[in-house]
Amino acid sequence: MTTSSQVVLHGGRAFTADRRRPWAEAVAFDRAGILDVGIAGEVLGRFPDARAIDVGGRTIVPGFVDAHNHFLATGESLSSIDVRYPGVASCDDLVAAIAEAARTTPDGVAIRAYGFDHAKYDRVPTRWDLDRATTLHPVLAYHVSGHHVLVNGAMLQLRGLRDDTPDPPGGELVRDADGRLTGLCLDAAMNLVLPVAVEIGSHGPNFHTAEPLEDLVEAVERAGTAFLRAGLTTVCDAQVTRRELAAYRAAADAGRLPVRTVCMPLSHQLDAYRAIGLAGPFGDDLLRIGAMKFYADGSLIGGTAAFDVPYGERGEFPGSLYHEPDELRTMIVKAHADGWQVGVHAQGDRAIGITLDAFEAAARARPREHRHRLEHAGYPTPEQIRRIAELGIITVNQPRYLRDSGDEFLARLGERAHWLLPLRAELDAGVTVVLSSDSDVASYRPLDVIASAIDRRTLAGAPIGADQALTLEEALFAYTIDASFALRLEDRLGSLEPGKLADVVVIDGDLEATPPDEIATLDIWKTFLDGRPASEAGADPA
Ligand SMILES: [Zn+2]
């Protein structure tokens, strides 16, 4: 029996994410970190006391790094009513799902549903639909984008919203032809209707609802455990308020934070951080503050992304901006001057242009290595890609949207849809391209996202920008070392190199031999965090 904590994984190919030698045969590690990577016979020979695990032809990779994920929201969605497509494919399905929940929910208690996607329905659902499900419970149905919420009459009444309530800046309370609220609240208007724990003004969509801390810690643990099972060892929450930070801190204190967590404080806190003299990165290997998050435009799926030429089958989506361009620039220049790395949500070319102007002004005022990020970067024009490369901006992309919503993109954007996430063009221009999930908007499983980056097919099977597809190896770099670069953690994790933290994953199959359309069906065999088994297929890690 061996008492050493050393492990050697061998018997399959190992993707190292080290560009000098991307593939190896074996990796040795202990709790302190990775010890050796190389040829199986040699590595096994150097660590005779190690526990040798033959992976049986499976593929070894560094723990995946999700650079844009709504961690706590994912945990909350995992315990809410799931109204995603295709399970819920019409207004009637939505009503039925909520009516069923109402039968087992005490009167007056709010019902939450996550993930409806009315682009798949034949019409937009309204409060009157939800009123058919229940009038005894306030209902909140979140749009799959996280940017909109649909509420019923009871919820409108609870929050005192009336037909003459004005729209807030950066948001809209949708009204029908007679001026009546339909219950659909877009972007910054979510603020008005949710029982929010944190006021964020028009800095982003407000999904920061009031819940007891204990429930939030439970949600963190629930999502984190699922992440480990999917091969994720580091996750960056792309919109953090004091609510999220408190939940992660409490979870970490209680030993209930399963994955390394990086927080992106939302921009409404810029002045508060400035007042105490704090800027990211700050923290430790388990929990840290990273870049600051800003929003330029709305949701691509939700119809509020800002394009130069409005999209939609009848050009019905002019897009909306969270801030006037001058205001965004002023904030970003300030954050940059304070030392922040900045990540800006920007989908349409109009929003991307405004954001690049702000980045350029910030860099010119104070040149430094900044690693600013474009979150989503849906539709950068060729000229914008040149600027992105020149300014040293990282794009943080979510190609799973191309599958989940690709058919709507083709209908609403026509030819332009094939230029969504032009990752090949970005790589050719020298841009650092990162893949991520945007969970719970889309699947948190890295292999789902990687499959879509390679395959670029819609749910209906149509190709979408096929010439922009990544190779498997490019997709792996983008989910490991380049994602850790976007988090300023590349010296600690993201690759299998001696001295790095021992976050190692074994995929349950031979990844290189798996056809692209089957990659998403692969499971994760084992996940090691800090050299310890953190999750195992078929076993409950707890
Ligand atoms: Zn997001």
Q: Can you summarize this structure?
A:
With 542 residues, the chain is α/β, with parallel strands linked by helices.
Descriptive account of the structure:
A six-stranded mixed β-sheet has the order 9-10-11-12-14-13. Strands 8-15-16-18-17 form a five-stranded mixed β-sheet. It has a five-stranded parallel β-sheet with strand order 19-20-21-22-23. Helix 16 runs antiparallel to helix 17 (472-479). It is globular, with a radius of gyration of 23 Å. It is α/β, with parallel strands linked by helices and 542 residues long. It contains 18 helices and 26 strands. The two termini are 24 Å apart. 31% of the residues lie in helices and 22% in strands. A hairpin with a 3-residue loop joins strand 17 (282-283) and strand 18 (287-289). The protein binds zinc ion. Residues 68, 70, 238, 438 line the site of zinc ion (ZN).
List descriptors:
single chain, 542 residues, alpha/beta, 6-stranded mixed β-sheet, 5-stranded mixed β-sheet, binds zinc ion
